[in-house]
Design brief:
Helix 1 packs antiparallel against helix 2 and helix 4 packs antiparallel against helix 5. The protein is an all-alpha fold. The radius of gyration is 25 Å and the shape is elongated. About 65% of the residues lie in helices and about 0% in strands. The protein has nine helices and no strands. The protein has three domains: about 50 residues; about 70 residues, Ribonucleotide Reductase Protein R1, domain 1 (Orthogonal Bundle); about 25 residues, no CATH class.
Length: about 160
C-alpha cells in the first residue's frame, strides 16, 4: 500500500499539458488501492466481530506491573514539580529497580525517593497517577465515535468498554 501511495504522488507531477505516462499510473494504482482498502476493512470487521473482552483479565494483566505501567503519567505529573528530565530519569531508575525486585509497589518506591519527597507531592497526589483507569486519554471519545453513539443522545455508556 505504501508503494502504491508513492506511485500516486509521483503521478501528480504534471508534465507539459499532462502528457501520457504519469497519469496512466492512476489507472493501475487506484483500483489496487481500492481493492486493498476493501479487503483491509473486511478483515478488520471479521476480527472485531470475533473480539471477546475479558475486563477482569485485562485488569489482572495491568496489575502485573505493580503500577509501573503508568510510569509515563507519573513522569509527566512529577515533571511539573521537579522538571521533566529529572522526573524521566527518576522514574526510569525506579522502573529498572522494579524489574529486578517487583515486590515493592511503584507508589511505595516513588514515596521513598528523596526527589519525590522534596517535590511536595504526597501519596494522595501520586496514587491517582499510578492508576491505569485514570490514564485513558481520549479513549472514551474514540470508542463513542467508532461505535457511532453519543452518550448525550441516549447511546451506550462508554464505561462499558473501558477498564476503570
Amino acid at each position: 500500500m505504501k508503494q502504491l501511495s508513492a506511485a500516486l504522488f509521483d503521478a501528480m507531477v504534471e508534465d507539459h499539458e499532462r502528457s501520457t505516462g504519469p497519469w496512466e499510473i492512476e489507472w493501475i494504482v487506484l483500483p489496487q488501492i481500492s481493492t486493498l482498502t476493501v479487503s483491509t476493512l473486511e478483515h478488520t470487521l471479521a476480527l472485531l466481530e470475533g473480539l471477546e473482552v475479558h475486563a477482569d483479565v485485562m485488569k489482572r494483566n495491568l496489575d502485573i506491573t505493580n503500577g509501573a505501567i503508568v510510569s509515563e503519567a507519573v513522569m509527566m505529573g512529577l515533571g511539573k514539580k521537579i522538571g521533566r528530565q529529572v522526573a524521566h530519569d527518576l522514574v526510569y531508575d525506579i522502573c529498572r529497580k522494579m524489574a529486578l525486585d517487583p515486590s515493592v509497589s511503584f507508589v511505595d518506591r516513588l514515596m521513598d525517593d528523596k526527589a519525590v519527597k522534596s517535590s511536595g507531592m504526597s501519596r494522595d497526589d501520586i496514587k491517582p497517577l499510578c492508576e491505569p483507569g485514570n490514564y485513558i486519554g481520549l479513549s472514551k471519545e474514540m470508542i463513542s465515535r467508532v461505535i457511532g453513539r453519543n452518550e448525550g443522545a441516549g447511546g451506550t455508556q462508554t464505561e462499558d468498554y473501558c477498564i476503570t
